[in-house]
Specification:
171 residues; alpha+beta; 4 helices; rod-shaped
Amino acid sequence: PVLAEDIRNTPDFALSGRNMYRDDSFIVFPLIDESGSVVGLLSLHNKKSPPFTRQDLDLGQIMVSLGSETLQKQLAAEALRKNEEHLARLATAVEQADENVVITDTSGTIVYVNPSSTRVTGYAPDEAIGRSPNILRSGKQDEAFYQGMWDTLRSGSTWRGRLTNRRKDGR
């Protein structure tokens, strides 16, 4: 912390407009984030003499700790809000995409279909979710094709290719 016991007679504050202060002394504590960067300041002003007691300094440290924690929570909440906005935009893009989007979990069970998928395949979300994508197999690709696709996906890689699927009505 920075302690100025007599503001009007402290040279460091000559350029800061020390004459505007009505207080006799103040102490400034930095608010430090988890990375060690100063993200704010807590300033305590004092009109009484003697300037600051050890108890005042200890109280200031407690306030800094609480202030830093509160600031971190606010920053985290703001980051979470921005993340949620980003995810909402992505979800809207997927929902409105003209392309067929089917998402499966790692065991290959359908967990999401977008409206375009419903329009193209004829399977409503409640008919597709929880089932295997095998319901879409047209028979135009052989077992080796599907094995290669799933091996690629399960390895965490991006599969690129073209599937010829079958609609719910068999077409």
